[in-house]
Write a structure and sequence with these properties.
Elements lengths: L1 E4 L10 E9 L4 E10 L3 E2 L22 E4 L1 E7 L5 E7 L11 E2 L9 H6 L3 E6 L8 E7 L5 E7 L3 E5 L8 E2 L5 E2 L6 E5 L14 E2 L5 E11 L1
Antiparallel strand pairs: 1-2, 2-3, 3-17, 4-16, 5-8, 5-10, 6-7, 6-9, 9-12, 10-11, 11-17, 12-15, 13-14
């Protein structure tokens, strides 16, 4: 799929051509390859905002599904979801998914970041040995069905969102109404607000220096 954004569209400089390639493999992977080029220097940070519910799209809340995120830090943010700029250790917090935890186990904990966002909606700073390597970043599992989804990416971050703002008014397949926390997103990306945070990985797309990235969602059953 190809999209061309005109120079000045939504206030961004440069004509940007973005090409997305989706590939289904014999290993039950959905591979997403991102490619982009611009005629002028411009901020560029693209992701995939799919919602997942491994028990089925109409199975209701995902609180009992488990999650692992390969990150030692996340980005704390203010009440408008703009990161403060410092990486926060997950440590002894509800944001520690270095080992498997149920998504709903700590989502209502008395923690400022959970109160601000109404639950999980934060960027995790992925553990990487080398910048730009394709590496493991997350694993989700539904214990009732045994379905497993693993995520691999070349991106430095991943936004974990637990559908805090779904409210049962969106109608999906078969007339299903999607309820609050009826799905989760694992959005691979560069860090939010990177143009204003010099210490974050750079998101400037420059002429003659094409952008390329890959994210793989791999599915299995246990």
């Amino acid at each position: 799929m190809t999209c061309v954004s005109a120079d000045g569209e939504e206030g961004f400089p440069g004509e940007v051509k973005t090409v997305m390639t989706y590939t289904l493999t014999n290993d039950n992977e959905l591979k997403i390859d991102y490619a982009a080029e611009s005629t002028r220097a411009t901020p560029f940070n693209i992701t995939n905002h799919s919602f997942f519910n491994l028990a089925g799209h109409d199975a209701g809340m995902i609180g009992d599904q488990t999650l692992v995120i390969n990150a030692d830090t996340f980005l704390s943010a203010d009440g408008t979801s703009i990161p403060y700029g410092d990486e926060t250790p997950v440590g002894e917090t509800p944001f520690n998914f270095r080992t498997s935890h149920k998504i709903g186990a700590r989502i209502e904990a008395d923690h400022e970041q959970l109160r601000f966002a109404g639950g999980y909606d934060h960027n995790y700073c992925l553990n990487k040995e080398r910048e730009g390597e394709l590496s493991f970043c997350a694993r989700a599992e539904d214990p009732s069905s045994g379905r497993v989804m693993e995520v691999f990416t070349t991106e430095p971050g991943i936004q974990f969102y637990a559908a805090n703002f779904l409210d049962g008014t969106l109608r999906g397949k078969g007339g299903c109404m999607y309820v609050r926390r009826g799905g989760f997103c694992l959005e691979t990306q560069h860090y939010p607000d990177s143009p204003n945070q010099a210490q974050f990985p750079n998101t400037t797309l420059r002429p003659g220096k094409p952008f390329a990235s890959q994210t793989n969602y791999k599915f299995s059953a246990c």
